[in-house]
Amino acid sequence: MTMRARTLSILALLLMSLTAAAQESDFAVKQSFENRILEIKKAIDGATSVATLDSIKTDITKLEGDFGGKREFLDRSLYPHTYDEALTELKDIHLITYDRVYLIQTQGIRLSDLQAQLTAMSLQIDTLTNEKNRLFAELAQSKKTQSELREVARRLNSSLDAKDRLIFAMTDSIFLPYGKDLNQASEMQKEAVGKKLAQANVLTRVNEIATDNIRFLESTQLQPKDYANLIDQHEQFATKWNGLREKMVAVALPPSARPVSATKTKGGVPVVTTAAPQPGAQVDSVVNAWNLKLQESLMASIGKEFTTNGIALQPFNDARTFSQSVRAYIATLKTSGQDPTVFVDKVWKERIDREWRDVLSKESMLGKAEYAALDQLVSELHAEQVGGQFYLYVVLVLALVVAIWWFFFRKPRGGKAEKSE
Amino acid sequence: MRFSIVGLLSVAATATLVSCASLKIENVDFGWPVESVVTVGDDNVAQDKRYSVAFPTAELAMEEFQNPDALRGAKLRVIRSKEGYYFVTGPKFRNVYVFEPGEGMLTQEGKILVSETGLKDPALNNRPPHVELVDGDAFKKVLTASGILEAQ
Questions:
Q1: Where a domain ends, among A40, A71, A106?
Q2: Nearest to B34 among A23, A24, A27 (CB)
Q3: Which range (A8-12, A341-345, B20-24) has the least confidence?
Q4: Which residue of B has its CA nearest to A29?
Q5: Number of domains in chain A
Q6: Which among B34, B126, B134 is the nearest to A23, CB-wise?
Q7: A168 and A61: one domain?
């Protein structure tokens, strides 16, 4: 259908509806509404350009304006459907077609390919979810040996990691066709992206990953080398999530365009509001909780290295306070003159520097410079200890040399007397 | 003693009558939100699918056009009022027929003359408690089961 023919056709229907209004025949009003919906659907079906679809959007708005006042009557006469349902269906069809036409027009991407890709990813995510649930159940059973549990935890972690990557790949696929600057996208495009994100259940899935990771930390006994990987995973997740959240905010409707919704308070009184929470606020809080849990677990494990060797550091709960505690302990050792051997050799050199250096040197933890500074302080402590011993050794060696000299090379006093005699 | 037996019988009879009285529900709204436009089939039966009502039209055609087949293929306008009466009319009709539903039948309750020359483009609207008849731009009449209440 050409643009002109479509416009004429819609004008004819508009005229019919105006006549119908003049006649005041309810049946004619109903029929006119149904015919105009049908005509718009046909127009959408035949649309091959975004410009045509923009024009159809105006027709839909006009339809709403023409029949909005008869909503109550149409609700009853369109039974089992309602006025809102009819319009929502029309808008959905328009939106889907707009999306498809836009993609074909601007990106040359075959929608079927994209859709198939999204479906495949969704299936993979579901499979990973099943796998994850099974592994959590295995982990909960304490019948396995320590090494078997380690293997389950490893598989579980890699499953969570794979799911994480898949979900963000899926969201990338959703946003990909719309370019980088979503603020420049039209309302229609934003609406289309928002709809796809909702259909792909993105927020729930992202939230689930973060929650699963907290659960993983709670149900697994980790070793020092595990933490570096877990911190990387959290950092990557948080970065990806921040990017996604920005995009979600960009596609979210402005408050003025949000549908008015009634929410119920605790007292059951509905409160009508257009204010909606920022998209992903819940995910933000779970990602934050995940970080706190990770820090808590990590700091507890590091703390054990000291307490098991009888060293009581000031309590610490993150990298910054850990550094302060170590510095304070070193200062105490220096002033008190206590033997630092256990702290320096057994704890710092054998455990912290060997097992935890990678984790503590991360920029999100102490950072390389701060770790090096701490290590330097500990080394100086060692050096002072070594220096004292060295002087003792020198004195002892000198004393020994003097003793040997005295024993072997000294001239006996009695011999001189005999000679003079 | 005799008095007490009569009294007992009276009480029993009253109780029996009360328990046998049929249940009545009032303030029922039978009204259709919008009229049905039904095409009379070759079998001279008008069938409305939404409300599952079907009725033969030969007698109605005979009454209005003196020809039992006059309505074959015609489009009838049917609406049910709030009170439960069926209002039936159509193009070329001079009257609106009002029927009361009964057991397997429709009984004529009223026959309202609305146009001497016959309706051109009639439509029935439910305007509780009445029914409104419009004929294109020609006129609008408010009908009751027994006649015209108001005409414009």
A1: A106
A2: A27
A3: A8-12
A4: B34
A5: 3
A6: B134
A7: no
Look up the pTM and report it. Answer: 0.49
- CA A376, A379, A385, A386 torsion: positive or negative? negative
Residue B122: closest CA among chain A residues belongs to which residue? A25
ipTM (interface pTM):
0.78
Q: Which is it for the CA torsion A297, A302, A306, A308, positive or negative?
A: positive
Do A76 and B33 count as a contact with CB atoms less than 8 A apart? yes
Whether A40 and A93 map to the same domain: the answer is: yes
Is A336 part of any domain?
A: yes
Q: Are B115 and B94 in contact (CB under 8 A)?
A: yes
CA angle A311, A314, A315 (to 5 degrees): 110
Whether A199 contacts A262, CB under 8 Å = no
Question: Per-residue pLDDT tens for A390-420?
Answer: 667 777 888 888 888 887 776 666 544 444 4
Pick from A106, A136, A158: which residue ends a domain?
A106
Asked, for residue A225, whether it belongs to a domain, the answer is yes
Q: Which of B37, B77, B134 lies closest to A24 in CB terms?
A: B134
pLDDT tens string A224-233: 888 888 888 8
Whether A404 maps to a domain, the answer reads yes
Question: Which tokens in the block code for residue A136?
Answer: 């959590």
Q: Which domain holds residue A199?
A: 111-255+279-290
A241 plus A174 within the same structural domain: yes
